[in-house]
Design a protein that fits this description.
The structure is a single chain. Helix content is 37%, strand content 22%. By secondary structure, it is of the alpha/beta class. The protein has 3 domains: 165 residues, Rossmann fold; 168 residues, ANL, N-terminal domain (Rossmann fold, 3-Layer(aba) Sandwich), CATH 3.40.50.12780; 129 residues, ANL, C-terminal domain (GMP Synthetase, Chain A, domain 3, 2-Layer Sandwich). It has a 9-stranded mixed beta sheet with strand order 12-13-14-15-16-21-20-18-17. The N and C termini lie far apart (60 Å). Pfam families: AMP-binding (PF00501), AMP-binding_C_3 (PF23562).
């Protein structure tokens, strides 16, 4: 049992001693230049930075913030913070100045590491007065109190601190789909429990490769990439930018990969942009040619070496999973939350049950409350919300179960199926309750729909707001709207036939604009902010209802 609780820093020291010269991180520097760091080099830099941090003589447990897009030194800074005895507070790299200040002040951050950022001038005013900044090697233009080279001028620490299992390691602020972010507190024991047990499911080797591109400040990337590489020994390749992502992916040719549904959909839409969906579907149905075409499509995406592909953090359309299966790739659903290190349920290879996520991961207890809420308990459950005992008490039951806020059911084989969010379920003006997520998943099967949000609170019937894919927008711009409308009417009829009367859609609204992080419609982890969508279009709801058209356009 003691072996099952090796703490993150312990595991790092073990790996560093076992293969110091093995390549650990591959970082693009721009202009085609690449930096490769070994385990020993990572350890050396982290120890020097830790010594510098200690020299500031901050109280033990002080909070140190990291604001950066993913890069090698994000993880090195995190290791250094832990070695120095402090608590890391990661921030999303695209926060507004106001949101950044809110987190930094709430966490009482004593220092801020600043790395790769797209718009530092917009975020910089959010830095509280008197809080020093340290520029990581990859950093934006601007004035910083210290450079990474200042930290590297220190000698490395000589001890090997590990922290204690119950010692606070990090405060992860949620991405705020519904309001003010909450600071989720995780100790080293939480990370160790999730990583050690998760490792048993993945069967990783030192030869595996990961690509880091989802925000490292999010629990999924933190668990899968940072903890995964420490405990599994994989090489981590970093993506340079969205523009170079496909090249980065092909260079890494990852063997293990986690992606949110939006990423897997983007890959699919990229394929459809090069080959019409109908043609690809026809080719994939052919016995021998289908397998060849599937392999070529995966190779073109840089996904041909994948041994395990995971998808989670939001509801996953079944049709999307089936599409990848036809290419020859099983994308396995994973379920978890920031509050439990992303560690709860995982679909196992060879045990895929359509419509169900999978069984509980080792060490996880599950129950369904009287209200139908999924509740889980494990060694990965958070310590609580920072400075917020009231919301902590709301989230964790007296007997230690985490209230997920998800409605669901468990079958006789302990497979879990989610049926909606407790807070997202809305009531129509007829007094009927509707869960939007299952309806959205049915609509997402259409190859020209990239995003969808079903609304209906206080309306007579629900309606669906659909963002067209790049191909869909192109076809609409080329004047083929009548053909598009016919295909959407067919979808509309098929979906409504499968729904109960009170759930049936009144109309599909086709949107040519895009919902993105930049315009506030998506969280940094690419989840749709329902409240933002509803408030943006609420003024049109009555007009759309009065038109009583099956399919209508909104520019």
């Amino acid at each position: 049992m003691a072996d099952a609780m090796r703490l993150p820093l312990e595991v790092f020291y073990e790996r560093e001693a076992r293969h110091p010269d093995k390549r650990y991180m591959v970082q693009p520097l721009g202009g085609g230049r690449i930096e490769e760091l070994t385990w020993a080099e990572v350890g050396e830099q982290a120890r020097r930075a830790a010594n510098w941090l200690r020299s500031r003589e901050l109280p033990q447990g002080s909070r140190i913030a990291i604001i950066s897009k993913n890069c090698a030194h994000w993880i090195i800074a995190d290791l250094a913070i832990w070695m120095a005895g402090y608590v890391s507070v990661p921030l999303y790299p695209n926060l507004t100045a106001e949101s950044a200040r809110q987190v930094l002040e709430h966490s009482e951050a004593a220092l801020v590491f600043v790395g790769k950022l797209d718009d530092w001038p917009a975020m910089a005013p959010g830095m509280p007065d008197g809080v020093p900044t340290v520029a990581l090697p990859l950093h934006p233009e601007g004035r910083f109190d210290y450079q990474w080279s200042d930290l590297q001028a220190c000698s490395p620490i000589r001890d090997t601190p590990t922290g204690a299992a119950d010692q606070l390691a990090t405060i992860i602020y949620t991405s705020g789909t519904t309001g003010t972010p909450k600071g989720v507190m995780h100790n080293f024991g939480n990370f160790a429990f999730a990583a050690e047990n998760g490792l048993k499911l993945f069967e990783t080797t030192d030869d595996d490769r990961l690509i880091s591109y989802l925000p490292l400040c999010h629990v999924a990337e933190r668990a899968f990439v940072e903890m995964g590489s420490l405990y599994g020994g994989q090489t981590v390749f970093f993506a340079e930018s969205l523009d170079t992502f496909l090249e980065d992916l092909k260079r890494a040719r990852p063997t293990l990969m986690f992606g949110v549904p939006r990423i897997w959909t983007k890959f699919q839409m990229g394929v459809y942009a090069k080959m019409p969906a109908a043609k690809l579907d026809f080719l994939l149905k052919l016995p021998i040619i289908g397998r060849i075409v599937g392999r070529k499509v995966l190779a073109g995406l840089g996904l041909d070496a994948l041994r395990m592909a995971l998808c989670g953090a939001a509801p996953v359309p079944e049709a999307l999973l089936r599409w990848y299966q036809r290419l020859g790739l099983d994308v396995l659903e994973v379920y978890g939350m920031t509050e439990n290190c992303g560690y709860s349920h995982l679909c196992r290879r060879g045990k895929i049950k359509t419509g169900w996520i999978g069984q509980a991961s080792p060490g996880v207890e599950v129950r369904i409350s009287e209200e139908g809420e999924v509740q889980v308990r494990s060694g990965a459950t958070m310590q609580g919300y920072y400075k917020d005992p009231e919301r902590t008490a709301e989230a964790i039951t007296a007997d230690g179960f985490l209230r997920t806020g998800d409605k669901g059911e468990v079958d006789s084989e302990n497979y879990l199926r989610l049926t909606g969010r407790l807070k997202e379920i809305f009531k129509t003006s007829k007094g009927k309750y509707v869960a939007p997520a299952p309806i959205e998943n049915r609509l997402a099967v259409h190859p020209l729909i990239e995003q969808v949000c079903v609304v209906g609170d206080s309306l007579p019937q629900p309606m669906a707001l659909c963002v067209l894919s790049e191909v869909g927008r192109r076809e609409a711009a080329n004047g083929t709207t009548s053909e598009l409308e016919n295909s959407f009417r067919t979808l509309f009829d098929e979906v409504n036939k499968a729904l109960d009367k009170h759930e049936r859609l009144l109309t599909l609204v086709l949107l040519k604009e895009i919902w993105a992080v930049e315009n506030g419609f998506l969280t940094p982890t690419l989840k749709i902010k329902r409240n933002v969508v509803e408030s943006a279009y609420q003024g049109h709801f009555q007009t759309w209802l009065d038109r009583r058209e099956t399919v209508l356009w909104h520019d």
